[in-house]
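Quick start: read one record
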Amino acid sequence: MGRLDRHTPVGLVVRAGATDRFDLPLEVELALPIGLASKPVRAFRIGTNEAPREVLAQLDRLDSHGKSRLILVLPGPLLHGLKPLCTSIWD
């Protein structure tokens, strides 16, 4: 993997699991360079046959060295068997 910078998208594939989910909060720990971890973040939900939609997102720095937590909320239904992709892009 190449070096992450503020223009590097990070993609997550999210599945509902065994049951349908609604307004799903997500937290993901990431190891990010300090310069990137201090930047604002934007996230988008990309579903099958849908235009990308921006979703609530924030990035919190953790006490552990070089770790950050990306927090997202996927609004609406996340149906069992579908795989929406959320892409986070630093501004």
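The mean pLDDT is 79.
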